[in-house]
Amino acid sequence: MPSRRRTLLKVIILGDSGVGKTSLMNQYVNKKFSNQYKATIGADFLTKEVEFEDRLFTLQIWDTAGQERFQSLGVAFYRGADCCVLVYDVNVQKSFDNLNNWREEFLIQASPSDPENFPFIVLGNKVDVDGGNSRVVSEKKARAWCASKGDIPYFETSAKEGINVEEAFQVIAKNALKNGEEEEIYLPDTIDVGSTSQQRASGCDC
């Protein structure tokens, strides 16, 4: 079997605690949803392989804690990101108001080479709650904010119902690919299970 080129793309998900960052990631990668809320401690990541034009890409999706006490961990996790996903809860005004803070924080911590054109994507999550009757942030308002920040792509999602999750992550992957510096990894027929391979597989350079 010939070796295949694989490119690693790093995606960071940011937003207030409780907006559904972990649920969105789990719905996309594992097609699962849990009603049990458990705050992320520090950061965690999942990987998913996607294929574009007969090429294999590994999305490394980092889910970071929304609590302020963990924000000091940001630098290590943000660095090297190819795309940043900003998530808010359409039923919580404060989570929308804080999008700008998360965006600015990311640009400061990650220091991308071209901050003006770095790919962000905004997800307005939990559109399923109460049949949409309890939402306080309109789609029009969210799209206006995205337009003011350089036409950031916007999706309204439900991690619980799986609404627009797959579609949003397809755009996330494509935008990360456009931005990402390709790191080509050749997959041999046999895999060396030595320490070097294990470090590479962990995706962590810390």
From TrEMBL:
Keywords (A to Z) from UniProt: GTP-binding, Lipoprotein, Membrane, Methylation, Nucleotide-binding, Prenylation, Protein transport, Transport
Protein name: Ras-related protein Rab7
UniProt-annotated location(s): Endomembrane system
Primary location group: membrane
Membrane topology (UniProt): Lipid-anchor
Gene3D superfamilies tied to this protein: P-loop containing nucleotide triphosphate hydrolases (3.40.50.300)
GTP-binding is among the record's keywords: yes
InterPro entries according to UniProt: P-loop_NTPase, Small_GTP-bd, Small_GTPase
GO molecular function (one): GTPase activity
BP term (GO), one: protein transport
PROSITE patterns per record: RAB (PS51419), RAS (PS51421), RHO (PS51420)
CDD domains membership: Rab7 (cd01862)
Gene Ontology, cellular component aspect: endomembrane system; vacuolar membrane
Family classification: Belongs to the small GTPase superfamily. Rab family.
